Amino acid sequence: MPFTPLLPDKFQHRSGHPEEADDLRLASSQTSLEARLAQAPHDTTTLIELSEVLFRRGRLRASSHPLLAAASRLPRNAPLIVSLTQRLVANGEILAARACLDLLEEAPAPPADLLAAQAHLRFMIGDLAKALERIQLALHAGADSPGEHHMHALLLQFSGRIDEAEAVLERCLARWPQFGDAVTVLVNLRKQRPGANRLDRIDKQLRQIPHETTDTDRGFVRAEFEYARFKTLDDLGQNGEAWEALSRCNAIMRSLNPYDAAAEEAVTAALLNMPATPAPPGPARPPGPVPIFVVGMPRSGTTLLERILSSHSLVASAGEIIDFWRQLHWVADVAPAQSAGLLEIIRRSGNVDYRELGQRYLKQTQWRAQGRAYYIDKLPANIQMLSFIRRALPHAPILHMVRDPMDTCFSNYKALFGNISSYSYDLTALAHYHAQYMRQAQHWHSTMPGAMLDVGYEALVQGTEATVSRVLAHCGLAVEEGCFRPERNAAPVATPSSAQVRESIHVRGLGQWRRYAQQLEPLRLALEAPQAALAFPM
């Protein structure tokens, strides 16, 4: 869901940059597959294989054509349709992927594994209500793996059904006591309290997991239980022991996910040196719903702002979608390859067809508005995309969430993002990452004045009415009372803070880092270093 807050793993599962010897082999495979298609032009398996070869040769745009050809003549073969849908999603062909999923729902008496596959794919494209429906059907049909129960619990949580999610996770841990994914979600569902917590069970499992292990999976599980220990002790106010558990958790995660400072700096430098390209001429507002982009550092309050906005009668939430990244890669014809892919896109930025980018993004996302006039694309990492977004979608409002650096960084440090966001597991890396973000945000303000509106977290929670009114006016929306009561918003929310944002607006998030001021002193000093001293209004 790094600066590169790059794309989630689900978007980077393949490499599109083969070595020369590999490319020769792939070219030979392409010739053979094209010959097969000349004899059987509608063979779905061959079309999928050809798309995969083209993708691996770095030809992302061309790799979509076989997939779309296959999608236009779908076979009555459910596993093959699932495989095709996975690739359509990765290529940014979301409308075609949805059509495939709709067809799969017509399958008579589908087996559990097919229903679970549909749930995963619906989850991937952010269709949470459908994903929940499918995973419940899968479980009813006999699906019974830890991962399937975990997905069920997550989707219940995202839908605000906290008691049901808690019951599912408790049953999971009763059957699989060392299922770390379940324990991390469970402790985050609500504040842990004396006499109503799972600390003894967490400690029991930690005693059974070796401190030192060369087994990556076991190491990750230990980190998850250390995180659960931290969250419990933190809620109980036992700060000393809580910090020790968090430090152990993050030490493991650092070893599994080293932070690449050089790559982050290279991307920031490239963004800051992009040649200026004016937005394409055209209508000020294309037909159809308008996207509103919410950007900033992760854990800066973007989800709260999204919930406030999506409480408006004209606004829907699309969630943390990666569609703009997908379409930018497609239009630039650059296969995803972490920071190297983004650097190549920046190198080609002068030749990108921004009108095509905007049209393609709108075509693949406007369904998310659910009949409303606006929809929110809330991916914090889109702070890197400002120049691209402004050129492709000059009519789209962009809101930049700004929060006190110490609160933001501590909130990142005490979150467990999994095997992404490597910056978040080390205080020095956090300060460096935050500095890259600040350099980018300041650059956009200086080179594109007015391109984005800064929204201070402190102002949002302390002066809600004035701040929300200013945000709504920036988006061209009239003030509605519901925007001041986001806790009444029943729409699903798929972020780590999904439980907290169902509460009324509060100020408890201000200054939380001060409980650990002594331990966080190195972070404070690093953030105050000259290279990090870029200020924004709070």
TrEMBL record:
Keywords: Transferase. InterPro entries: P-loop_NTPase, TPR-like_helical_dom_sf, TPST-like. It comes from the Bacteria. Pfam families: Sulfotransfer_3. This is Sulfotransferase.
